[in-house]
Amino acid sequence: MWAGLLSLVLIKFSSVSEELQALNLNYSEMLMRVWQDLDNIQEAQKIMERTVSNNFSELQDITASICGEGKSLVSRSCPTIWKMEGRNCYYFSAEKKNWTNALWHCINKKANLVSVWSDEEQEFLRDNLNNVTHWLGMTDIEREGKWKWKEGNLLVSTTFWDKGEPQMSHEKNCGIIQPNGTWASAVCSFHHHWICKKKADLLKSMSWISS
């Protein structure tokens, strides 16, 4: 009888130990998710603060141009190796980074990871890809399937998705433009080339002659 009782106690102890191990594992996983979410929130806050600062600086430049002394004709220019299209400048990287680091590179250049708002802009990008894949400034990391541009946090409206894209995947949360110009979803930690976009600098080219 004692042997049977001891056996039952050991079985119960083993069962309780397994449950405790499972609870500890679940707690550890939950804690890791909390820390990861906190890191993501802090990263998003830093990006938002830098973006707001860049937008404010751009607004100051425009205001200074409009309110400057005298009337003047205004031209636009882009930094060296950037390409101008319309009123925007575009930087096509020669190196590769993951999506977050590419985004930060653009922000540090007072730019945004590229967004696309028209057929003409899409055509310009496609013609300058040099047959390689580039990151786009869009993600659905906040809500699966709801793609937004980081520039302005606006929903992606004009789209050029490849067939079968975007994929509904918890891993593929960042957008790319493929060598043929079509869009696709990709794993954000992968390394690709990227495109930065910003407004061209305003320059006073000449003063009007008063009549």
Structure description:
With 211 residues, the chain is of the alpha+beta class. The protein folds into two domains: 1-74; 77-202, Mannose-Binding Protein A, Chain A. 39% of the residues lie in helices and 22% in strands. The strands form two sheets. Strands 2, 3, 4, 5, 6, 7, 8 and 9 form an eight-stranded mixed β-sheet that branches. A two-stranded antiparallel ribbon has the order 1-10. The protein starts with a helix and ends with a strand.
* Cα radius of gyration in angstroms: 26 Å
Let me know the number of strands.
Answer: 10
**How widely separated are the two ends?**
117 Å
Number of domains: 2
CATH class of the largest domain: Alpha Beta
CATH topology of the largest domain: Mannose-Binding Protein A, Chain A
Q: What's the story with the biggest beta sheet?
A: 8 strands, mixed
Q: Judging from the principal axes of the Cα atoms, what is the shape?
A: elongated
- The SSE string, one letter per element, is HEEEHEHEEEEEE
Q: What is the count of DSSP helices, taking H or I runs of 4+ residues?
A: 3
CATH architecture of the largest domain: Roll
Q: Structural class of the secondary elements?
A: alpha+beta
Roughly what fraction of the amino acids lie in strands? 15-25%
The oligomeric status of these chains comes to: single chain
What is the percent of helical residues?
A: 25-40%
Mean pLDDT: 79
Classified in CATH, the superfamily of the largest domain is Mannose-Binding Protein A, subunit A
Spans of at least 5 consecutive residues with low confidence = 205-211
